[in-house]
Amino acid sequence: MKPSATPCKAAMAFCSSMARCFQHLPEDLLTDIAATKLAMVGLSPKEGAKLPSELSGGMTKRVALARALALDPELVFLDEPTSGLDPISAGEFDSLIRTLQQTLGLTVFMVTHDLNSLHTVCDRIAVLAQGKIVADGTIDDMLTSDHPWVKSYFRGPRGQLIAKRLEHASV
Q: Global pTM?
């Protein structure tokens, strides 16, 4: 059985298993890499020793992100990274992603329906509707788009909160 398929691993072992699969490094160095990556996403060594069943939803997402970072990628793919998180945890996770983008020079490709995540994390947005890209650009471009679906999505009740936030930021 591959290390990554072993059930009920502690978060630290789960994180180091990714590096172990692709890098031939001594075990103590793999442990150091895992500890560093867990610290980068805001998890302590004590939290790294926890089993998956002992982690909160937000901690689980942070462990998964640390594992993805174990190989020092230039590009990270995130699929609905804030789904299932309460608004405070989602905002913290968005801020973490943004910080990692800036400090590590990461490119983040994110699929999300969370308008707050789009606003916080994304420099460029592509909107899929009717099975194709119907708009792409910045959040400002989305807020001024004439495409009916984009208009409804970004200028609807939830989108108006983002628009107001942008207005206050520019004043």
A: 0.80
